[in-house]
Amino acid sequence: xxxxxxxxxxxxxxxxxxxxxxxxxxxxxxxxxxxxxxxxxxxxxxxxxxxxxxxxxxxxxxxxxxxxxxxxxxxxxxxxxxxxxxxxxxxxxxxxxxxxxxxxxxxxxxxxxxxxxxxxxxxxxxxxxxxxxxxxxxxxxxxxxxxxxxxxxxxxxxxxxxxxxxxxxxxxxxxxxxxxxxxxxxxxxxxxxxxxxxxxxxxxxxxxxxxxxxxxxxxxxxxxxxxxxxxxxxxxxxxxxxxxxxxxxxxxxxxxxxxxxxxxxxxxxxxxxxxxxxxxxxxxxxxxxxxxxxxxxxxxxxxxxxxxxxxxxxxxxxxxxxxxxxxxxxxxxxxxxxxxxxxxxxxxxxxxxxxxxxxxxxxxxxxxxxxxxxxxxxxxxxxxxxxxxxxxxxxxxxxxxxxxxxxxxxxxxxxxxxxxxxxxxxxxxxxxxxxxxxxxxxxxxxxxxxxxxx
Length: 454
Description:
The protein has 454 residues and is an alpha/beta fold. It has three domains: 2-25 and 91-223 and 425-444, Rossmann fold (3-Layer(aba) Sandwich); 37-84; 234-422, Rossmann fold, CATH 3.40.50.2000. It is 37% helix and 13% strand. It has 15 helices and 13 strands. A seven-stranded mixed sheet has the order 9-10-8-7-11-12-13, with helices on both faces. A four-stranded parallel sheet has the order 3-4-5-6, with helices on both faces. The chain is globular.
């Protein structure tokens, strides 16, 4: 999303640059942050040596320990922090971010700072030099380590005694209380402008340690390029992808969905199994886009995996080929996949977690629907079900598949709602408008910031 926003700003005539931990795209406007110990020549040589030993792990005793020793040598400070359970912030290149572009930026806009490349402590200095906007894409900024709290509320009072050390990004030991205190000290000494893509995440952030250092905040929905994700002829899309025309087609897309702890592939799979047993002879096809594995059959239903696809046009074709989009999640903010489905005029059946209930306008009195807010058919864009409710997801899918007129109505509503709320152009314009407000507020705000604690 950061790259999309960067390109959108440039397209509209604004000067924009990106500083990244590792540059995967050759562009004069994208800079790799220098001085990352993990990216030094020495570190790369050691990591390559460790990787070269991988084929021997299962055949030679002790190779795994040698690999662990090499990994420790590649970045000793990081390795020590990792062994202690502490989040690692020693990335000295962060201090020079303002000097990377040819012109001093008016605003620094930060995204996803937990990717092993950014020194969070530099927010204090940066925010005193230039307005710093921080867009949250998950809950990591105010927790002791995890990207999503998965129902745990200890982030409100200081973490510690963590029940989910395995949650991404995982930690080996429980230093979550110390991590939480370190973040709190940074925020208390900073002056930040925070945005979120969902009201759900903003409400959580407002109750957290993050807001001790926040001057202003704004909810700005993520958008998609509607010139790519748009309604299209279903039969033509299937022909382009080599898919059969006859079956009713369901789609679920997520990168490595079966291994992603925040998605709920099992609920989607079980819903398809129920649908397959109840569909009689009418064939049903679920495409799981973004993963690999053997196909499965459940009565008249087939579950088929399609590997991750990089081409936005081909991804859009899968949406355009589908009758319904299913989205199972255990934790989520404002998933782009749901926005892509809506923009492609595909009704969505999704578990109501995180910000998903803001995306999907749930059909009133729908079979399997959740007990939360719902709207009449002339406004609905899909059906929300309770988290983990495979039977409810199946009931909603069967009801929509059986009613062509209702499904067509929801399809039209979805495309219209995406145009009104989730257009990438609006996201860029709303962001620029907020930058202007931030600059005005930063200029007139003369609050003396407290020094950072020990």
